[in-house]
Design brief:
Elements (H helix, E strand, L loop, with lengths): L2 E4 H6 L1 H8 L4 E5 L2 E6 L2 H8 L5 H6 L24
Parallel strand pairs: 1-2
Antiparallel strand pairs: 2-3
């Protein structure tokens, strides 16, 4: 169920908005009109059909704690034809 907060409410209680975004979109209003929508990252990714790249994940705060082992690169050579 969507939650609606004024900009002032959002600024004073951001943690409430973040908790509400876990269950649905949070509409943030400016002068009574919807101006922004806060979504949890999973919902945003579902809507956009995008997944973050490993570069994005590692650049995030706490990214240094992400376990990642890159697959070993295989380079195949081809014979050169000088004719």
């Amino acid at each position: 169920m969507p939650t609606t907060l004024s900009s002032r409410e959002f600024n004073h209680d951001t943690s409430r908005a973040k908790k509400a975004a876990l269950t649905g979109p949070v509409f943030i209003t400016d002068r009574g009109k919807p101006a922004h929508v806060l979504l949890c990252i999973e919902e945003y990714q579902r809507l956009t059909g995008s997944q973050p790249s490993i570069i994005d994940i590692l650049a995030m705060p706490g990214g240094e704690d992400v376990e990642f082992e890159a697959p070993r690169a295989t380079i195949k050579t081809k014979p050169v034809d000088f004719s």
